[in-house]
Amino acid sequence: MRILIALGGNALLRRGEPMTMSHQLANIRRAAQQIARLADGNQLVIAHGNGPQVGLLALQAAAAGAACAAPLDVLDAESEGMIGYLLEQELANALPPQKQVATLLTRVEVDARDSAFQHPTKPIGPVYTEAEAERLTIRNGWNFGPDGNGFRRVVASPKPQRVMALKPIEWLLERDVVVIAAGGGGIPVTVATDGQTRFGVEAVIDKDLCSALLASDVGADLLLIATDVDAVYADWHTPCERVLSEMSVAGLRSMSFPAGSMGPKVEAACEFVSRTGRPAVIGSLDRIEEMARGTAGTRVTCA
Fold this sequence. Notes:
Layout: E1 2-7, H1 21-35, E2 43-48, H2 51-63, H3 72-94, E3 101-103, E4 107-109, E5 122-128, H4 130-140, E6 143-147, E7 150-155, E8 162-163, H5 166-174, E9 178-180, E10 187-191, E11 198-200, H6 207-217, E12 222-227, E13 232-234, E14 242-244, E15 246-248, H7 249-253, H8 262-276, E16 280-284, H9 288-293, E17 298-301
Parallel strand pairs: 1-2, 1-12, 2-9, 3-9, 4-10, 12-16, 15-17
Antiparallel strand pairs: 4-8, 5-7, 6-7, 10-11, 13-14, 16-17
Helix pairs in contact: 1-3, 2-3, 6-8
């Protein structure tokens, strides 16, 4: 079976944890050990988030001064390489010696006219107090949005249109290589008016939506969205909350989910199922084998 595994940000940094390399390594090691359980007999593509990491890189770039600051597409590439390396290293340690792992920097085409560029919504970086957010808005011209009891920087998140490394991914999968690709939603690029020249843009693509697109394009049999909760819940954090163990696309789309957490995962699952007719599962990384078997998480189907 060909499976695309989309790792949520919790695979790298759990909410409230300091953004240290030791915490990230511990979480990546845990993720790799879980993923390794699915490697025997399956072809795996792994995508991952980069919100905390790319936000930290942006802070470092801003601290270095305007002349040294790298644009977001370059920071996306930097974070994709860094996280990909750490995942590749830990997966290689968790898998049999003969199993190969490869990380690909992945460009993803977006539309320069996407309305997301005028309405930034994608949270990146750490959580700030209101006073800290106001100070950074004045100093760096950044936009902020509420996140729990604090605020996070928000940037443009255009919809992914096309993954530009499909042939190399296919070549590697055909040779039984575990492929890490489209990390952080990929590196956003757009096409110039000549229809050929491509250039990077200031944005961070949603990892879940890009994972759904990539899963569809590589012919995945299953999209597995691994996060830090055991399933999708209706009426989350209310006395009426309940687990949704199996849902149709129509059923999920008739419900409302938070835009900053479960919303993009539900949308991505629905997009993949609608495009391919194949199932998607959303659930806990710790139950990844059961999710693949259809006995844990929320399974999304056509009907």
